[in-house]
Amino acid sequence: MMNRYSFVRLTALSMSLMAAVGVARADAVETLRHFVKNVQTGRGNFIQVVTSPDGKKVRKSTGTLEFQRPNRFRFAYAGPTEQLIVGDGKQVWLYDADLNQVTVRPMSQALGATPAALLSGGTLDKDFTLKAVTGTSSSAAAATSTLSQLNQQTVAPLEWVEALPRHQEGQFQSVRVGFKNGQLAALEILDSFGQRSRLDFAQFEPKVALAATRFQFTPPPGVDVLNQP
Q1: How far is 56 from 19, CA to CA, in rounded Å?
Q2: With 50 as the cut, is the pLDDT of residue 21 above it?
Q3: Can you give the CATH number for the domain in which 183 is found?
Q4: How many domains does the chain have?
Q5: Each residue of 28-63: pLDDT tens digit?
Q6: How far apart are CA 229 and CA 226, in angstroms?
Q7: Which domain does 138 fall in, by range?
Q8: Residues 70-111: pLDDT tens digits?
Q9: To bridge 63 with a disulfide, which of 1, 36, 77, 109 should be the other Cys (CB 3.0-4.6 Å)?
Q10: pTM
Q11: Under a CB-based contact definition with an 8 Å cutoff, are residues 113 and 170 in contact?
Q12: Rounded to whole angstroms, how far apart are CA atoms 91 and 114?
């Protein structure tokens, strides 16, 4: 099971993708490139489904995401556990309300050579092999069912692009990004342990003006603050 910062490294990829371009494109690879090049800010709701390697254990959570490239993001998990993850461009803050604890790490250590860092830097083709693919994982049914809590519209088949890292020493095997009518619809990450994390998005607002304070974090009074190298 990956630790919290491993999870941040993986899920923060959506920071650089969370938006809708509103332009239908036949090739999902070109749609992904367009996202990375042109979308600088966005916000929206998500449902996350994490499936164990054997496919039997499923964890679900809901939340919101705001981002501003480069390296500024805000994940707010509403349930089942209340957590807040804020990247301010220099550090990543993880606040766990149940534990009354804040963990902070330098941005370079929290993200490292991950999809989030690479995509936000515009080095997509240099560091990844990209290809359009069909279908998705067996966890899709669980994710799609849960997605109806956010969006009651019929879920149409998605166009998928797969990004495989050219260097395999990282903490993930592959990343798949799903588009619907040229818009970002889902993100699926397969980590090095075989655990699959899928995020389904709804109610996107691309290219929105976001206050700088959304990407700042001050630990609440009385919480334990743990600094990690």
Answers
A1: 31
A2: no
A3: 2.50.20.10
A4: 1
A5: 888 888 877 888 888 889 898 999 999 888 889 999
A6: 10
A7: 4-227
A8: 888 888 998 788 899 898 989 989 999 999 999 998 887 766
A9: 77
A10: 0.74
A11: yes
A12: 15
